[in-house]
Amino acid sequence: MGRKKDIVTIRDIAKEANVSVTTVSNVIHRNYGRVSQETINRIEKIIKEKQYIPNMSARSLVNNSSKIIGVINNLIPEINSSFIQDPFHSAFIGGIEKEFSKSEYFTMIRTVMDKQELVALLKNWNLDGIILTGVFDDEFYHTLKMSEIPVVLIDSYIKDEEILSVGLEDFNGGYIATKYLIENGHKNILFASPKIKANGVVEERLKGYKKALCEAGLLFNKNNVYEYEKAITIDECIKLGRKLSERRDITAIFATADIMAVGIMSGLQEMGVRIPDDISIIGFDDLDISRITSPRLTTIHQDAEKKGLIAAKMMIAYLKEHNVKSKKVILPVHLVERESVRKIL
């Protein structure tokens, strides 16, 4: 067997560059204040040639920084599906990873059920920051805030001017979707969603739905709001579609997530309901799956990957400079017309 290649250390780099270990460390950590450009170039060239990889554990001990950012979902088991399996969150996490891969930060993905799990996580891991989804103004959030760890909230309507957040035009999305159905002649429109929590994303989309009905002179009917209490999975949404096939009085459905819309479509079609001839349907998110349904799904577009990119950039800017240009970013939405909505003459 061949001899194992020796591991290059920071001392090896310092010896070849004829500088101190401290100088090499400053270059690695980009502390260039007392290092000449010529020395920086020489050290970086040697690092590249020798394929030196910094020891992250050692660096975290020296700097009291792990370079690990937790991407955490406050999972509510009765209404949420798997965080990772959800295609929206997969795209969102992809955006975070894309941004962190260009920096010195790493991602740790976790789901936590309650305050106790959060406390255990914070005790066991030296996280530099947290990007958090699925959180409301409750005990869980206040426990997190007391930890004083930098946080970026995703899709949260918590009113806290000091917290960094990235959100969406949820109200406008609900309004655009419903208005589009009304403009196509639909008057009895069902609103299908996960559990509606106060001051949450789904509630905002419901408010947009109500506004579009009101502007068109259509009465809001609470029986047309189908709030699904179980976990939002494809199988459960197919079951929901089968059940909704019994609602022969409606002509259209606004589902507040593409994953719901696709499942409902499948369940309706199993029961012989033709889309869009019998019932039209519109989704929300514009995930890849919306382009491979039959018919292809009309939906409200949001850029999940961009949401992740912005959240990661926010976190990096705050950790490095303790300041960001804007603490709250709201991303736009727009309608994507495909074939799942019929115009009623």
Describe the overall structure:
Residues 8-63 form the HTH lacI-type domain. One of its GO terms (molecular function) is DNA-binding transcription factor activity. Keywords: DNA-binding, Transcription, Transcription regulation. InterPro entries: HTH_LacI, LacI/GalR-like_sensor, Lambda_DNA-bd_dom_sf, Peripla_BP_I. This is LacI family transcriptional regulator. The chain has 345 residues and is α/β, with parallel strands linked by helices. It has three domains: 10-54, no CATH class; 68-168 and 305-332, Rossmann fold; 170-302, Response regulator (Rossmann fold). The chain is built from twelve helices and twelve strands. The strands form two sheets. A six-stranded parallel β-sheet has the order 2-1-3-4-5-11, sandwiched between helices. Strand 6, helix 9 and strand 7 form a beta-alpha-beta unit. Helix 5 packs parallel to helix 12 (304-321) and helix 8 (170-183) packs parallel to helix 9. The longest helix has 18 residues, at 304-321. The chain is elongated. The relative contact order is 0.12. Residues 1-5 have low confidence and may be disordered.
